[in-house]
Amino acid sequence: MAGVKSDGSDSGLVLLDVFGSPFAQRVSIALAEKGLAYERAEQDLTAKSDLLRRSNPVHGKVPVLLHDGRPVCESLAILQYLDEAFPGTPPLLPPVSDPYARAGARFWGEYADRLHFCGKRLWLSAPGGDGGEAEPGARAEMATVLRALEAELGEGDFFGGAAFGYVDVAAAPFAAWFLTYERHGGPSVAEECPALAAWAARCSRRESVAANVYPPEKVHELVQEYRRWMLGRK
């Protein structure tokens, strides 16, 4: 995982994040794509800091991007903010001259969140993470989400076509979770959505993603640890 990014400039950016958060990873990927320097301030969500509470008083969660001390909350809002606040950097969203494409990118970026929420239902409910039965309907819902994303991807290398952009940044952290979803009763992406699996492989080879997202086996290990912790609390 990346710690502090630096391109030799002073961007006034501090990222409040937490170990392994795919939502925070979105922001780290975006910052890397834009070549923006930032400081990373990892948070403890079991004992939230005053800084986090002040920066995100509504939800008290990460990621939060501080720009010259001013907080921007929620990962997708941060991605859009970076495009607007740093117009001289490579854009994530389609050009302002194409509002239809920009609206579509925002829609699919938000839709990618379903991978996380449906996936969480799978890995919290399937016994032991050994392919057992998951929560009824979770597998079917995950299959629907994956097929919808594959249809939107089409024949392009990335969701924006040839260019890695907003939707790719939003969805790439969850591609590392495909193995975990499958091992907890979800569909096999490689078998059922081969184009999406190929996209995930392309993303994993991209420097911004490889430096900021754990490989699939590591994600699975972390999920198993979290499951044991959750079960131990009951």
Automatic annotation (TrEMBL):
It is an enzyme of class 2 (transferase). Keywords: Cytoplasm, Transferase. GO terms for cellular component: cytoplasm; cytosol. Gene3D superfamilies: 1.20.1050.10, Glutaredoxin. GO terms for molecular function: glutathione transferase activity. PROSITE patterns: GST_CTER, GST_NTER. Residues 11-90 form the GST N-terminal domain. The keyword Transferase applies. InterPro entries: Glutathione-S-Trfase_C-like, Glutathione-S-Trfase_C_sf, Glutathione_S-Trfase, Glutathione_S-Trfase_N, GST_C_Tau, Omega/Tau-like, Thioredoxin-like_sf. Its EC number is 2.5.1.18. It catalyses: RX + glutathione = an S-substituted glutathione + a halide anion + H(+). GO terms for biological process: glutathione metabolic process. It is found in: Cytoplasm, Cytosol. Is involved in the conjugation of reduced glutathione to a wide number of exogenous and endogenous hydrophobic electrophiles. Belongs to the GST superfamily. PANTHER family: GLUTATHIONE S-TRANSFERASE (PTHR11260:SF767), GLUTATHIONE S-TRANSFERASE, GST, SUPERFAMILY, GST DOMAIN CONTAINING (PTHR11260). This is Glutathione S-transferase.
